[in-house]
Specification:
It is a single chain. The protein is α+β, with helices and mostly antiparallel strands and 185 residues long. It folds into two domains: 68 residues, no CATH class; 104 residues, OB fold (Dihydrolipoamide Acetyltransferase, E2P) (Beta Barrel). The protein has five helices and seven strands. Strand 1 and strand 2 form a beta hairpin. The longest helix is centred in the N-terminal third of the chain and has 36 residues.
C-alpha cells in the first residue's frame, strides 16, 4: 500500500479527532441519561431523565466557585477611562524600559509619539525620551492602594517594553517627571 501525503490527509485526521470527540460526548450524555432513568426506576416512580439531568446541571452551577458566571461579567466598567484617554493634556508614548524596586514602585522610560495639546506635555517634542515615575499616595510607610488614582498608577508596574501608553505629566523633578497618571492605551 502506498503512503498518502498532502493537505487532505491532515484534514482527514482532524475529522477523525472531531468524530471521536462527538462520539465520547454522546456516550457520556447517554450514560448520564441511563443512570438517571435507573435511579428513577429504583425509587418506584416515573421520572423524566431529561428533567433529572437538568436538575443535576443546576446543582453543579449553583455549587461552582463563580456560579457559572464570568469574572469579566462581574467587573464594573471604568466609565472614566475613555475620558482619560482622550484628554488633551495627555501625551502618547511607547514604553522603552521599566525599572522597578518592587511593587508598585516603578520608573518607566518612554519615547514620546505624540505631544499633548495642553498642559505640561505640550512642550515635549516628538521622539523625546522621558523617565516617568507615577504619582502614588503614601500613608505612613505604605502605598494607599485604596486611593483610585494610586491604584490606576500602580498598574504601571505591569507595563512592558513596546506598550503604547497615555501619560498626563505632572511635576518635572529634574531627571524625571512625576505623572498624574500613566495608562496602557
Amino acid at each position: 500500500m502506498s503512503k498518502l501525503t498532502g493537505p487532505w490527509v491532515l484534514h482527514r485526521q482532524e475529522v477523525k479527532e472531531t468524530d471521536m470527540r462527538t462520539l465520547l460526548t454522546t456516550a457520556a450524555a447517554a450514560t448520564l441519561l441511563l443512570f438517571a432513568g435507573l435511579a428513577g426506576a429504583q425509587k418506584g416512580e416515573e421520572t423524566d431523565p431529561l428533567a433529572e439531568l437538568a436538575t443535576l446541571g443546576d446543582e453543579a452551577v449553583d455549587t461552582g466557585p463563580e456560579g457559572g458566571g464570568s469574572i469579566r461579567a462581574k467587573k464594573d466598567a471604568d466609565l472614566t477611562r475613555s475620558t482619560r484617554l482622550k484628554d488633551s493634556k495627555n501625551l502618547e508614548a511607547k514604553v522603552e524600559k521599566v525599572s522597578s524596586k518592587g511593587f508598585p514602585i516603578v520608573a518607566v522610560t518612554v519615547t514620546v509619539t505624540k505631544s499633548a495639546k495642553d498642559g505640561a506635555g505640550k512642550d515635549i517634542a516628538k521622539n523625546a525620551k522621558l523617565v516617568i515615575v507615577p504619582k502614588l499616595k503614601v500613608e505612613g510607610k505604605k502605598v494607599a492602594l485604596e486611593d483610585e488614582a494610586t491604584l490606576l498608577n500602580a498598574g504601571s508596574f505591569y507595563l512592558q517594553q513596546g506598550d503604547k501608553v497615555v501619560v498626563r505629566l505632572g511635576t518635572n523633578k529634574g531627571k524625571y517627571w512625576e505623572a498624574e497618571y500613566i495608562e496602557r492605551k
